[in-house]
Structure formats: structure tokens, C-alpha cells
Design brief:
Oligomer: single chain
Shape: globular
Radius of gyration: 12 Å
Structural class: mainly alpha
Distance between the termini: 32 Å
Order of helices and strands: HHHH
Mean pLDDT: 89
Amino acid sequence: ISREELRQKCIATLRKLSDTGLLSSKQKRVLLTDIITSSARGETSMVEVAYELLCTGEEEKDEAEMDTGMEDFTEQCRVFAAMADED
């Protein structure tokens, strides 16, 4: 999976989390801004790193592991959004 594909999947996941109420629209906006800013600098955002580590990987992951990964990713998104909001 390319870095760009990973970024697009991460963005789609943030939108889904916001649509389902797991992230607020403000949290989504803060995190998307971080992804865009990092991308413009040629860097990878912390949100993307978290997504890659927690939500992707070996095909052997079962559904329970994927659910746990998504829960962990959602919690990290809330932390990142709170940190970014303090800046």
C-alpha cells in the first residue's frame, strides 16, 4: 500500500468516525488540517502513523482485532485533536 493510499484511507476513516459520532466535526477538522499540513511539508502526520500501526497490517487480523484497532485509533484521534487544539 502506498503512502498516498494510506493517507486516503485514513481520511476516509476520519470522515466515517465523524459521521457516526465517534469524533466531533471539530476534531475531524483539526485532524484533517494536520494531515494536509504534514503532507504539504512532505511529512507523515501522527494521525496517519497511528492509522497505519493500529488499523492496517497483516491479513491475518480477525474482525475482533480490527475492531480493537479502530477503537484504539479513535481514542488516539481524540488525543491528537486535543493536543493540536492547545497549540
